[in-house]
Amino acid sequence: MNHWIVVPVVLPAVLAAILTLSMRQTPTLQRTVSLAGVAALLAVAVGLTVEAASGAISVYELGNWPAPFGIVLVLDRLSALMVLLTAVLAALVLLYAIGSGWDQRGQHFHPLYQFQLMGIFGAFLTGDAFNLFVFFEVLLIASYGLMIHAGGRRRLKAGVQYVIYNLLGSTLFLFALGTLYAVTGTLNMADMAERAAEIPAGDGALLRVGAMLLFLVFAIKAAVLPLHFWLPETYAAAPAPVAALFAIMTKVGAYAILRMYTLVFGPELGVTANLVDQLLLYAALITLAVGMIGILGSKGLGRLAAFATIGSLGTLLIAISGFREETTAAAIYYMLHSTLAGALLFLIVDMVRERRGADTLVPGSRMAQHGLITALFFGAAIATAGMPPLSGFIGKLLILDAVRGMDAVWLIWAVVLGMSAVAVLGFAQAGSAVFWKPLPDAETTKAPAQAPPVALPMVAACAMLGAIILLAVLAGPVMRYVEATATQLHTPGDYIAAVLGTR
Asked: Do 89 and 146 fall into the same domain?
Protein backbone atom coordinates (compact mmCIF):
# COMPACT_ATOMS: atom_id res chain seq x y z
CA MET A 1 0.00 0.00 0.00
CA ASN A 2 1.01 3.57 -0.67
CA HIS A 3 0.97 5.19 2.76
CA TRP A 4 1.16 8.71 1.28
CA ILE A 5 -2.56 8.48 0.45
CA VAL A 6 -3.54 8.75 4.10
CA VAL A 7 -1.26 11.74 4.83
CA PRO A 8 -3.77 14.44 3.70
CA VAL A 9 -6.22 13.07 6.28
CA VAL A 10 -3.87 12.25 9.17
CA LEU A 11 -1.52 15.25 9.02
CA PRO A 12 -4.20 17.98 9.49
CA ALA A 13 -5.80 15.96 12.30
CA VAL A 14 -2.50 15.66 14.15
CA LEU A 15 -1.62 19.32 13.57
CA ALA A 16 -5.03 20.45 14.80
CA ALA A 17 -4.57 18.54 18.06
CA ILE A 18 -1.05 19.89 18.57
CA LEU A 19 -2.12 23.47 17.82
CA THR A 20 -5.01 23.21 20.27
CA LEU A 21 -3.18 21.53 23.14
CA SER A 22 0.29 23.05 22.97
CA MET A 23 0.28 26.36 21.10
CA ARG A 24 -2.85 28.26 22.07
CA GLN A 25 -0.86 31.05 23.72
CA THR A 26 1.82 31.41 21.03
CA PRO A 27 0.32 32.92 17.86
CA THR A 28 3.62 33.10 15.99
CA LEU A 29 4.33 29.43 16.56
CA GLN A 30 0.75 28.57 15.56
CA ARG A 31 1.17 30.42 12.29
CA THR A 32 4.53 28.79 11.57
CA VAL A 33 3.30 25.25 12.23
CA SER A 34 0.06 25.78 10.32
CA LEU A 35 1.88 27.19 7.30
CA ALA A 36 4.45 24.40 7.38
CA GLY A 37 1.66 21.83 7.55
CA VAL A 38 -0.18 23.30 4.58
CA ALA A 39 3.08 23.47 2.60
CA ALA A 40 3.70 19.79 3.35
CA LEU A 41 0.15 18.96 2.27
CA LEU A 42 0.71 20.83 -0.99
CA ALA A 43 3.89 18.84 -1.66
CA VAL A 44 2.09 15.56 -0.91
CA ALA A 45 -0.82 16.59 -3.15
CA VAL A 46 1.55 17.25 -6.05
CA GLY A 47 3.16 13.83 -5.55
CA LEU A 48 -0.23 12.07 -5.41
CA THR A 49 -1.38 13.84 -8.58
CA VAL A 50 1.78 12.78 -10.42
CA GLU A 51 1.22 9.20 -9.27
CA ALA A 52 -2.45 9.22 -10.34
CA ALA A 53 -1.51 10.67 -13.75
CA SER A 54 -0.26 7.22 -14.76
CA GLY A 55 -3.85 5.98 -14.66
CA ALA A 56 -3.28 3.56 -11.80
CA ILE A 57 -5.90 3.46 -9.04
CA SER A 58 -4.32 3.09 -5.59
CA VAL A 59 -6.17 1.82 -2.53
CA TYR A 60 -5.20 2.33 1.12
CA GLU A 61 -6.77 -0.11 3.58
CA LEU A 62 -6.85 1.31 7.11
CA GLY A 63 -5.76 -1.30 9.63
CA ASN A 64 -5.03 -3.62 6.70
CA TRP A 65 -8.70 -4.63 6.64
CA PRO A 66 -9.74 -5.40 3.04
CA ALA A 67 -12.80 -3.88 1.40
CA PRO A 68 -15.73 -4.02 1.85
CA PHE A 69 -15.20 -4.83 5.55
CA GLY A 70 -12.63 -2.17 6.32
CA ILE A 71 -12.31 1.55 5.63
CA VAL A 72 -10.54 2.33 2.37
CA LEU A 73 -9.14 5.48 0.82
CA VAL A 74 -8.96 5.49 -2.97
CA LEU A 75 -6.66 7.59 -5.13
CA ASP A 76 -7.62 7.97 -8.76
CA ARG A 77 -7.23 10.86 -11.19
CA LEU A 78 -10.29 12.74 -9.95
CA SER A 79 -9.61 12.45 -6.22
CA ALA A 80 -5.95 13.38 -6.74
CA LEU A 81 -6.91 16.46 -8.76
CA MET A 82 -9.39 17.61 -6.12
CA VAL A 83 -6.82 17.09 -3.36
CA LEU A 84 -4.32 19.22 -5.31
CA LEU A 85 -6.92 21.95 -5.90
CA THR A 86 -7.77 22.01 -2.19
CA ALA A 87 -4.11 22.18 -1.18
CA VAL A 88 -3.40 25.11 -3.53
CA LEU A 89 -6.46 26.97 -2.30
CA ALA A 90 -5.66 26.24 1.36
CA ALA A 91 -2.11 27.55 1.03
CA LEU A 92 -3.14 30.84 -0.59
CA VAL A 93 -6.07 31.46 1.75
CA LEU A 94 -3.93 30.75 4.81
CA LEU A 95 -1.30 33.22 3.59
CA TYR A 96 -4.02 35.82 3.21
CA ALA A 97 -5.53 35.11 6.64
CA ILE A 98 -2.14 35.45 8.34
CA GLY A 99 -1.11 38.54 6.40
CA SER A 100 -4.41 40.32 7.04
CA GLY A 101 -4.53 39.33 10.70
CA TRP A 102 -7.85 37.51 10.39
CA ASP A 103 -6.42 34.44 12.14
CA GLN A 104 -5.94 36.48 15.35
CA ARG A 105 -9.39 38.09 15.47
CA GLY A 106 -10.86 35.09 17.28
CA GLN A 107 -9.78 31.88 18.95
CA HIS A 108 -8.73 28.56 17.49
CA PHE A 109 -8.57 29.66 13.85
CA HIS A 110 -5.64 27.42 12.94
CA PRO A 111 -6.90 24.19 14.60
CA LEU A 112 -10.32 24.68 12.98
CA TYR A 113 -8.63 25.38 9.65
CA GLN A 114 -6.70 22.10 9.86
CA PHE A 115 -9.82 20.13 10.83
CA GLN A 116 -11.61 21.71 7.89
CA LEU A 117 -8.86 20.52 5.55
CA MET A 118 -9.00 17.04 7.08
CA GLY A 119 -12.72 16.80 6.30
CA ILE A 120 -12.37 18.08 2.75
CA PHE A 121 -9.42 15.81 1.90
CA GLY A 122 -11.18 12.83 3.46
CA ALA A 123 -14.36 13.46 1.46
CA PHE A 124 -12.38 13.44 -1.77
CA LEU A 125 -10.36 10.31 -0.94
CA THR A 126 -12.85 8.03 0.81
CA GLY A 127 -14.17 4.94 -0.95
CA ASP A 128 -16.97 4.36 1.55
CA ALA A 129 -20.34 6.17 1.60
CA PHE A 130 -20.62 6.17 5.39
CA ASN A 131 -17.17 7.67 5.76
CA LEU A 132 -18.18 10.26 3.19
CA PHE A 133 -20.86 11.21 5.73
CA VAL A 134 -18.25 11.22 8.53
CA PHE A 135 -15.90 13.51 6.62
CA PHE A 136 -18.82 15.75 5.68
CA GLU A 137 -19.56 16.16 9.38
CA VAL A 138 -15.91 16.85 10.23
CA LEU A 139 -15.65 19.65 7.67
CA LEU A 140 -19.05 21.03 8.64
CA ILE A 141 -18.26 21.11 12.37
CA ALA A 142 -15.02 22.94 11.64
CA SER A 143 -16.82 25.30 9.27
CA TYR A 144 -19.32 26.20 12.01
CA GLY A 145 -16.45 27.52 14.14
CA LEU A 146 -14.78 29.31 11.24
CA MET A 147 -18.10 30.80 10.16
CA ILE A 148 -18.52 32.74 13.44
CA HIS A 149 -14.79 33.50 13.84
CA ALA A 150 -14.34 37.05 15.23
CA GLY A 151 -18.00 37.19 16.30
CA GLY A 152 -20.63 39.75 15.40
CA ARG A 153 -24.43 39.62 15.49
CA ARG A 154 -24.90 39.20 11.74
CA ARG A 155 -22.26 36.46 11.59
CA LEU A 156 -23.78 34.59 14.52
CA LYS A 157 -27.27 34.78 13.01
CA ALA A 158 -26.05 33.49 9.65
CA GLY A 159 -24.05 30.78 11.45
CA VAL A 160 -27.14 29.51 13.29
CA GLN A 161 -29.05 29.32 10.01
CA TYR A 162 -26.11 27.50 8.42
CA VAL A 163 -25.92 24.99 11.27
CA ILE A 164 -29.65 24.21 11.29
CA TYR A 165 -29.87 23.78 7.53
CA ASN A 166 -26.83 21.52 7.34
CA LEU A 167 -28.01 19.45 10.31
CA LEU A 168 -31.20 18.76 8.37
CA GLY A 169 -29.04 17.74 5.41
CA SER A 170 -26.98 15.44 7.63
CA THR A 171 -30.14 13.79 8.98
CA LEU A 172 -31.34 13.19 5.43
CA PHE A 173 -27.89 11.75 4.63
CA LEU A 174 -28.34 9.13 7.37
CA PHE A 175 -31.79 8.22 6.04
CA ALA A 176 -30.30 7.78 2.57
CA LEU A 177 -27.46 5.59 3.85
CA GLY A 178 -29.85 3.48 5.90
CA THR A 179 -32.06 2.92 2.86
CA LEU A 180 -29.14 1.95 0.64
CA TYR A 181 -27.71 -0.37 3.28
CA ALA A 182 -31.08 -2.08 3.64
CA VAL A 183 -31.11 -2.75 -0.10
CA THR A 184 -27.47 -3.62 -0.83
CA GLY A 185 -26.09 -4.72 2.56
CA THR A 186 -22.99 -2.55 2.14
CA LEU A 187 -21.85 1.08 2.12
CA ASN A 188 -18.52 0.56 0.36
CA MET A 189 -18.99 2.38 -2.95
CA ALA A 190 -17.39 -0.27 -5.13
CA ASP A 191 -19.23 -3.11 -3.40
CA MET A 192 -22.49 -1.15 -3.58
CA ALA A 193 -22.00 -0.69 -7.32
CA GLU A 194 -21.65 -4.47 -7.78
CA ARG A 195 -24.69 -5.29 -5.66
CA ALA A 196 -26.88 -2.59 -7.18
CA ALA A 197 -26.18 -4.04 -10.62
CA GLU A 198 -27.56 -7.40 -9.46
CA ILE A 199 -30.95 -6.00 -8.40
CA PRO A 200 -33.73 -6.78 -10.94
CA ALA A 201 -35.38 -3.75 -12.49
CA GLY A 202 -38.74 -4.75 -11.01
CA ASP A 203 -37.38 -4.84 -7.47
CA GLY A 204 -35.47 -1.56 -7.52
CA ALA A 205 -38.01 0.83 -5.98
CA LEU A 206 -36.20 1.10 -2.64
CA LEU A 207 -32.86 1.51 -4.40
CA ARG A 208 -34.32 4.40 -6.39
CA VAL A 209 -35.59 5.97 -3.18
CA GLY A 210 -32.11 5.73 -1.63
CA ALA A 211 -30.48 7.16 -4.74
CA MET A 212 -32.91 10.10 -4.80
CA LEU A 213 -32.44 10.83 -1.09
CA LEU A 214 -28.68 10.83 -1.64
CA PHE A 215 -29.09 13.21 -4.54
CA LEU A 216 -31.06 15.62 -2.35
CA VAL A 217 -28.28 15.54 0.26
CA PHE A 218 -25.62 16.39 -2.31
CA ALA A 219 -27.87 19.06 -3.82
CA ILE A 220 -28.05 20.74 -0.40
CA LYS A 221 -24.27 20.63 -0.07
CA ALA A 222 -23.85 22.01 -3.61
CA ALA A 223 -26.49 24.75 -3.04
CA VAL A 224 -28.69 23.67 -5.95
CA LEU A 225 -31.87 25.71 -6.23
CA PRO A 226 -34.28 25.58 -4.39
CA LEU A 227 -31.93 24.21 -1.70
CA HIS A 228 -29.53 27.15 -1.93
CA PHE A 229 -31.06 29.54 0.63
CA TRP A 230 -28.34 28.99 3.21
CA LEU A 231 -25.49 30.13 0.97
CA PRO A 232 -25.87 33.87 0.13
CA GLU A 233 -26.05 35.21 3.68
CA THR A 234 -23.67 32.57 5.07
CA TYR A 235 -20.90 33.38 2.60
CA ALA A 236 -21.53 37.14 2.71
CA ALA A 237 -21.43 37.23 6.53
CA ALA A 238 -18.48 34.87 7.03
CA PRO A 239 -14.95 36.25 7.38
CA ALA A 240 -13.83 36.73 3.80
CA PRO A 241 -10.80 34.37 4.00
CA VAL A 242 -13.12 31.71 5.44
CA ALA A 243 -15.61 32.29 2.62
CA ALA A 244 -12.72 31.92 0.16
CA LEU A 245 -11.93 28.48 1.61
CA PHE A 246 -15.65 27.68 1.52
CA ALA A 247 -15.40 27.99 -2.29
CA ILE A 248 -14.22 24.36 -2.30
CA MET A 249 -16.97 23.13 0.04
CA THR A 250 -19.80 23.43 -2.47
CA LYS A 251 -17.57 21.53 -4.91
CA VAL A 252 -17.58 18.62 -2.46
CA GLY A 253 -21.30 18.24 -3.16
CA ALA A 254 -20.71 18.43 -6.92
CA TYR A 255 -17.87 15.91 -6.60
CA ALA A 256 -20.10 13.53 -4.66
CA ILE A 257 -22.80 13.69 -7.35
CA LEU A 258 -20.19 13.00 -10.01
CA ARG A 259 -18.66 10.11 -8.06
CA MET A 260 -21.82 8.33 -6.92
CA TYR A 261 -23.80 8.73 -10.14
CA THR A 262 -21.03 7.41 -12.35
CA LEU A 263 -19.77 4.65 -10.04
CA VAL A 264 -22.86 3.31 -8.24
CA PHE A 265 -25.89 4.71 -10.07
CA GLY A 266 -24.39 5.09 -13.52
CA PRO A 267 -26.35 5.47 -16.77
CA GLU A 268 -25.83 1.78 -17.54
CA LEU A 269 -27.66 0.73 -14.34
CA GLY A 270 -31.20 0.06 -15.49
CA VAL A 271 -32.76 0.37 -12.03
CA THR A 272 -31.74 4.02 -11.62
CA ALA A 273 -31.17 5.01 -15.27
CA ASN A 274 -32.16 8.61 -16.04
CA LEU A 275 -33.20 9.10 -12.42
CA VAL A 276 -31.50 12.44 -11.72
CA ASP A 277 -30.03 13.71 -14.99
CA GLN A 278 -33.09 15.68 -16.19
CA LEU A 279 -33.91 16.88 -12.67
CA LEU A 280 -30.31 18.01 -12.17
CA LEU A 281 -30.20 19.74 -15.55
CA TYR A 282 -33.26 21.93 -15.03
CA ALA A 283 -32.37 22.65 -11.40
CA ALA A 284 -28.88 23.68 -12.58
CA LEU A 285 -30.31 25.98 -15.25
CA ILE A 286 -32.50 27.73 -12.68
CA THR A 287 -29.57 27.89 -10.23
CA LEU A 288 -27.44 29.56 -12.89
CA ALA A 289 -30.15 32.10 -13.68
CA VAL A 290 -30.81 32.95 -10.02
CA GLY A 291 -27.09 33.28 -9.29
CA MET A 292 -26.36 35.63 -12.17
CA ILE A 293 -29.49 37.73 -11.64
CA GLY A 294 -28.44 37.90 -7.97
CA ILE A 295 -25.15 39.49 -9.08
CA LEU A 296 -27.13 42.16 -10.90
CA GLY A 297 -29.31 42.89 -7.86
CA SER A 298 -26.69 42.72 -5.11
CA LYS A 299 -26.22 45.74 -2.85
CA GLY A 300 -22.85 44.67 -1.48
CA LEU A 301 -19.70 42.98 -2.76
CA GLY A 302 -20.07 40.11 -0.27
CA ARG A 303 -23.49 39.09 -1.55
CA LEU A 304 -22.30 39.65 -5.12
CA ALA A 305 -19.50 37.13 -4.57
CA ALA A 306 -21.95 34.71 -2.92
CA PHE A 307 -24.38 34.87 -5.85
CA ALA A 308 -21.47 34.49 -8.26
CA THR A 309 -20.65 31.24 -6.44
CA ILE A 310 -24.24 30.05 -6.92
CA GLY A 311 -24.17 30.96 -10.61
CA SER A 312 -20.87 29.15 -11.15
CA LEU A 313 -22.29 26.06 -9.45
CA GLY A 314 -25.25 26.16 -11.82
CA THR A 315 -22.90 26.20 -14.81
CA LEU A 316 -20.86 23.35 -13.34
CA LEU A 317 -23.91 21.19 -12.64
CA ILE A 318 -25.26 21.72 -16.17
CA ALA A 319 -22.14 19.97 -17.43
CA ILE A 320 -22.30 17.25 -14.78
CA SER A 321 -25.94 16.49 -15.66
CA GLY A 322 -24.84 15.15 -19.05
CA PHE A 323 -23.13 12.16 -17.38
CA ARG A 324 -21.02 11.55 -20.49
CA GLU A 325 -17.26 11.67 -20.88
CA GLU A 326 -17.33 14.94 -22.84
CA THR A 327 -19.52 16.79 -20.37
CA THR A 328 -17.64 15.36 -17.39
CA ALA A 329 -14.28 16.55 -18.76
CA ALA A 330 -15.70 20.06 -19.31
CA ALA A 331 -17.21 20.00 -15.80
CA ILE A 332 -13.91 19.09 -14.15
CA TYR A 333 -12.04 21.87 -15.95
CA TYR A 334 -14.74 24.37 -15.00
CA MET A 335 -14.65 23.13 -11.40
CA LEU A 336 -10.97 24.02 -11.17
CA HIS A 337 -11.60 27.48 -12.60
CA SER A 338 -14.72 28.34 -10.59
CA THR A 339 -13.11 27.39 -7.27
CA LEU A 340 -10.15 29.72 -7.80
CA ALA A 341 -12.26 32.56 -9.25
CA GLY A 342 -14.80 32.37 -6.42
CA ALA A 343 -12.07 32.39 -3.77
CA LEU A 344 -10.39 35.41 -5.41
CA LEU A 345 -13.66 37.36 -5.34
CA PHE A 346 -13.99 36.87 -1.58
CA LEU A 347 -10.40 37.98 -0.98
CA ILE A 348 -11.11 41.16 -2.95
CA VAL A 349 -14.26 41.70 -0.89
CA ASP A 350 -12.14 41.63 2.26
CA MET A 351 -9.62 44.10 0.81
CA VAL A 352 -12.40 46.56 0.04
CA ARG A 353 -14.01 46.15 3.47
CA GLU A 354 -10.69 46.70 5.23
CA ARG A 355 -10.02 49.91 3.33
CA ARG A 356 -13.49 51.42 3.09
CA GLY A 357 -15.09 50.02 6.24
CA ALA A 358 -17.95 48.51 4.20
CA ASP A 359 -18.56 46.63 0.94
CA THR A 360 -21.65 48.54 -0.23
CA LEU A 361 -21.84 49.28 -3.95
CA VAL A 362 -21.71 53.06 -3.63
CA PRO A 363 -18.96 55.49 -4.61
CA GLY A 364 -16.40 56.15 -1.89
CA SER A 365 -12.94 57.58 -1.45
CA ARG A 366 -9.94 56.14 -3.20
CA MET A 367 -8.44 53.25 -1.26
CA ALA A 368 -4.87 52.30 -0.53
CA GLN A 369 -3.58 50.22 -3.46
CA HIS A 370 -6.69 51.32 -5.38
CA GLY A 371 -5.25 50.52 -8.82
CA LEU A 372 -4.03 47.05 -7.89
CA ILE A 373 -7.31 46.05 -6.22
CA THR A 374 -9.20 47.37 -9.24
CA ALA A 375 -7.08 45.19 -11.53
CA LEU A 376 -7.69 42.15 -9.32
CA PHE A 377 -11.45 42.78 -9.36
CA PHE A 378 -11.41 43.19 -13.12
CA GLY A 379 -9.57 39.87 -13.52
CA ALA A 380 -11.91 38.06 -11.14
CA ALA A 381 -14.98 39.58 -12.83
CA ILE A 382 -14.09 38.58 -16.38
CA ALA A 383 -13.02 35.14 -15.17
CA THR A 384 -16.33 34.56 -13.35
CA ALA A 385 -18.47 35.98 -16.15
CA GLY A 386 -16.66 33.81 -18.71
CA MET A 387 -15.05 36.54 -20.79
CA PRO A 388 -11.83 35.97 -22.77
CA PRO A 389 -8.96 35.43 -22.34
CA LEU A 390 -9.11 33.78 -18.89
CA SER A 391 -10.05 30.22 -17.96
CA GLY A 392 -13.74 31.01 -17.42
CA PHE A 393 -14.11 31.66 -21.15
CA ILE A 394 -12.41 28.37 -21.99
CA GLY A 395 -14.48 26.49 -19.42
CA LYS A 396 -17.78 27.80 -20.79
CA LEU A 397 -16.73 27.08 -24.36
CA LEU A 398 -15.91 23.50 -23.36
CA ILE A 399 -19.30 23.12 -21.69
CA LEU A 400 -21.21 24.58 -24.64
CA ASP A 401 -19.35 22.25 -26.99
CA ALA A 402 -19.85 19.19 -24.76
CA VAL A 403 -23.64 19.59 -24.41
CA ARG A 404 -24.26 19.53 -28.16
CA GLY A 405 -25.42 15.91 -27.93
CA MET A 406 -28.02 16.65 -25.25
CA ASP A 407 -31.72 17.08 -26.05
CA ALA A 408 -31.97 20.49 -24.37
CA VAL A 409 -28.88 21.88 -26.10
CA TRP A 410 -30.55 25.07 -27.37
CA LEU A 411 -32.06 25.83 -23.99
CA ILE A 412 -28.67 25.30 -22.34
CA TRP A 413 -26.92 27.56 -24.83
CA ALA A 414 -29.54 30.27 -24.42
CA VAL A 415 -29.39 30.24 -20.61
CA VAL A 416 -25.59 30.03 -20.36
CA LEU A 417 -24.95 32.80 -22.90
CA GLY A 418 -27.79 34.98 -21.65
CA MET A 419 -26.73 34.71 -18.03
CA SER A 420 -23.13 35.42 -18.98
CA ALA A 421 -24.31 38.74 -20.40
CA VAL A 422 -26.25 39.44 -17.19
CA ALA A 423 -23.12 38.66 -15.14
CA VAL A 424 -21.04 41.05 -17.25
CA LEU A 425 -23.62 43.78 -16.66
CA GLY A 426 -23.74 43.07 -12.90
CA PHE A 427 -19.96 43.10 -12.49
CA ALA A 428 -19.67 46.25 -14.62
CA GLN A 429 -22.26 47.97 -12.45
CA ALA A 430 -20.52 46.95 -9.22
CA GLY A 431 -17.05 47.77 -10.48
CA SER A 432 -18.12 51.20 -11.70
CA ALA A 433 -19.65 52.06 -8.35
CA VAL A 434 -16.78 50.85 -6.16
CA PHE A 435 -13.66 51.43 -8.27
CA TRP A 436 -14.36 53.83 -11.12
CA LYS A 437 -16.32 56.57 -9.35
CA PRO A 438 -14.26 57.44 -6.27
CA LEU A 439 -15.30 60.52 -4.34
CA PRO A 440 -12.80 63.17 -3.22
CA ASP A 441 -11.25 62.33 0.14
CA ALA A 442 -13.12 65.18 1.77
CA GLU A 443 -16.46 63.52 1.01
CA THR A 444 -15.55 60.26 2.70
CA THR A 445 -17.81 59.52 5.64
CA LYS A 446 -16.31 56.28 6.85
CA ALA A 447 -12.82 54.82 6.72
CA PRO A 448 -10.91 52.16 8.65
CA ALA A 449 -9.06 53.31 11.75
CA GLN A 450 -5.67 52.26 10.43
CA ALA A 451 -4.13 51.28 7.13
CA PRO A 452 -4.42 47.55 6.47
CA PRO A 453 -1.38 45.34 5.96
CA VAL A 454 -0.26 44.96 2.39
CA ALA A 455 2.36 42.36 1.53
CA LEU A 456 1.01 38.86 2.21
CA PRO A 457 -2.65 39.56 1.32
CA MET A 458 -1.64 41.07 -2.01
CA VAL A 459 0.75 38.20 -2.71
CA ALA A 460 -2.00 35.67 -2.00
CA ALA A 461 -4.60 37.46 -4.13
CA CYS A 462 -2.18 37.99 -7.03
CA ALA A 463 -1.12 34.33 -6.83
CA MET A 464 -4.80 33.31 -7.01
CA LEU A 465 -5.24 35.40 -10.15
CA GLY A 466 -1.97 33.94 -11.46
CA ALA A 467 -3.35 30.42 -10.98
CA ILE A 468 -6.44 31.37 -13.03
CA ILE A 469 -4.21 32.75 -15.79
CA LEU A 470 -2.02 29.64 -15.65
CA LEU A 471 -5.10 27.45 -15.99
CA ALA A 472 -5.90 29.28 -19.22
CA VAL A 473 -2.32 29.18 -20.54
CA LEU A 474 -2.00 25.46 -19.80
CA ALA A 475 -5.51 24.62 -20.99
CA GLY A 476 -4.18 22.01 -23.42
CA PRO A 477 -2.24 19.85 -20.92
CA VAL A 478 -4.94 20.35 -18.27
CA MET A 479 -7.65 19.20 -20.70
CA ARG A 480 -5.66 16.11 -21.61
CA TYR A 481 -5.50 15.25 -17.92
CA VAL A 482 -9.20 15.89 -17.29
CA GLU A 483 -10.24 13.99 -20.41
CA ALA A 484 -8.31 10.98 -19.13
CA THR A 485 -9.95 11.58 -15.74
CA ALA A 486 -13.42 11.56 -17.33
CA THR A 487 -12.62 8.34 -19.19
CA GLN A 488 -11.47 6.69 -15.96
CA LEU A 489 -14.57 7.94 -14.14
CA HIS A 490 -16.89 6.47 -16.76
CA THR A 491 -15.09 3.14 -16.65
CA PRO A 492 -16.16 2.11 -13.14
CA GLY A 493 -14.98 -1.48 -13.58
CA ASP A 494 -11.37 -0.41 -13.03
CA TYR A 495 -12.29 1.36 -9.77
CA ILE A 496 -14.26 -1.64 -8.53
CA ALA A 497 -11.49 -4.06 -9.40
CA ALA A 498 -8.89 -1.93 -7.64
CA VAL A 499 -10.95 -1.66 -4.44
CA LEU A 500 -12.29 -5.20 -4.23
CA GLY A 501 -9.27 -6.93 -5.75
CA THR A 502 -9.86 -10.55 -6.75
CA ARG A 503 -12.63 -11.13 -4.26
From this structure: yes
